[in-house]
Amino acid sequence: MSLTRRSMLKSSAALGAGALAGGMPLIAEAADEIVVAQIHDMSGGLDIYGAPMVETFNLAADEINAAGGVNGKPLRIVTYDPQSNMQLYSQLAQQAALRDRAAVVHGGITSASREVIRPVLRRFNTLYFYNTLYEGGVCDRNTFCLGTTPAQTVEKLVPYVLNRFGPKVYTIAADYNYGQITAAWVKKYVEDNGGEVVATDFFPLDVTDFGATISRIQQAQPDMVMSILVGGAHVSFYRQWFAAGMKDAIPIASTTFGGGNEHIILTDDEARGIIYACGYFMELDTPASKDFVARFAAKYGPNHSYLSEIPTVTYEGLHIWAKAANMAGTTERMAVIEALESDFEFDGPTGPSKIDAATHHAYRSAFIAECTGKGFQFIESHELQPPADTQAVCDLIANPDENQHFQISL
Amino acid sequence: MDRTAIVLIEMLSSISTLVIIAIGLAIIFGMMRVINIAHGEFIMLGGYIGVIATQRWGVNFWISILVIAPLVVGLFGVLVERLVIRRLYGRMVDTLLATWGLSLAMIGGVTMIFGNTIEGVSAPFGGVRIGAFSVSGYRLFLILVAVALLLGVLAVLRYTKAGLIARGAMQNPRMAAALGIDPDRVYMATFGVGAALSGLAGGLLAPLTGVIPTMGAAFIAQAFITVIGGGAAIVTGTGLAATLFGSVAKLVEFVSTPVIGDAALLFVALFVLRLLPQGITGRFFRRAS
What we know:
The structure holds 2 protein chains of 2 kinds. In chain A, about 40% of the residues lie in helices and about 20% in strands. Chain A is α/β, with parallel strands linked by helices. Chain A folds into 2 domains: about 35-150 and about 285-365 and about 390-405, Response regulator (Rossmann fold, 3-Layer(aba) Sandwich), CATH 3.40.50.2300; about 150-280, Rossmann fold (3-Layer(aba) Sandwich). Chain A is globular and about 65 Å long. Chain A starts with a helix and ends in a 5-residue tail after the last strand. Chain B is mainly α. A two-stranded antiparallel sheet of chain B has the order 1-2. Classes of the chains: A alpha/beta, B mainly alpha. The interface of A and B includes residues 213 and 246 of A.
């Protein structure tokens, strides 16, 4: 058989296809680089969150590489876009673990997506970091959850707003895991602080008509409204609240407002004055925060995305992993986990944080801020808040083989 | 007393929202039998155009939402009809697939062109006090708009030559053609009008809901339920179905929770279609239009 160029192409294409089907690594892993994967939605409904996460993650990677990489080797970032589609999450997590042999995978935005990739990465012994605020309760030694959980933010927000506005609270919340659990924490802390939750209403995520609710709130005459509304449809509440002329009559506090860029979508008049509790906001006036925002602006230009807690913790997430791998002297999974479990501390734009070995969650800052229209103004901060919700149900020191997402009930 | 008034206003407001989001679909689906799954995205596009005309092009708010939004979406509808829909008349299931693809393309296109976080516009008029309550003046305005829309479409269909031609061409295109009417152009124009009404809905609702590329999903189910529940007489049917579904959903919401209110709407729809498979006007008011 003479070897023509055409048959050569054919056979090499077949070889390539065979390699793909067999799951062989197509890109030979260079011995002198470390593969790190991120799975963040850059398209579809979740890209409001995902796009800035990719940007901050890449900034962190640039910084780590500029400082000499991890244990002297540069990082190579593999970026996957699951397009807000849960099926792709599982497929991409397998690719990251098996084909790329990533040392660590960062990613997942909603709890649903996290629960798709967490078992996959655990099965393939690939370390997993989840950097989004969520309802708490994940208990898995292979996973680190670095964002705030309700106990951290709500505990500080409630006494502040009760003191400022009065004891009668009306809670409105998104009708799923996060909203239900956070509403339960609101009730607990309101009652602990001598207040009263006069009613709690839950809304499916696609509700856009809040007229009846607004009338019900008016009838209940609370001193304030606590909003745990989530997502694009629920932004309608703030508009209709303003349209009904209620904005200056009853104040609103929230643990979610701003996290989904609500303050960018609303007009200044609709958003101004809402009190927000979170793990980070961009206007935070500390040297570490200002420096972080400046570096981000240097890379992505002056009209860059708003930096809320989620992208900022994503940035810290990669740095935290890199620091632990440097401490361990290797990127081997168990060694890095053990480094993170031994009183690991980190200083980032959100302030100091500390990994809790028992839950693999973070002690981190909680901030209270007031919306000024397109941004937020600092009110108070509380350093190193414990992830008390997850601590109540999870102890990985006593049960290192635990692998659950506990439904926290109060 | 105040409370009764408020419940009544909220019911009317809920009915008017259903009428506004369903009227465009009533023409495209009810009259033309095109299952337009992209209806929600037509509304979304209207919302975007209204908001962008106000915020970026500096056009007067009322002109943006009442003129520019329906005009642009109407022209877009004509374009879609020429390129896609006209090849699919009489093939209902195929229109479903094609417009589903269209809806995905529109969500992607709007996200690419305008981005998914744009600042909305506030509703004008502020709050109106009713006893101890305060309701949005803009919502009261929308109630009037819904009434005007229903009466307007009814009048055009019943009392104008254009309406007569449109109804005739839908009912029997060959006979219409034999009488010297070009059904092809009538279809195009009718689809355009349906699209324009959807665009108007988007413009009208934008100050209350804001705009995001995926907002259509929140409207599509309610619009179809209303139109199908209404039955053959598209205007009367849409009005009756909106009244029934809107008032039941709101009443239930007032005495229970928004989740149960939503469920009640679906339950009533189920009940209506079980008893009246041809919709309300399939049994009652059969001579209405």
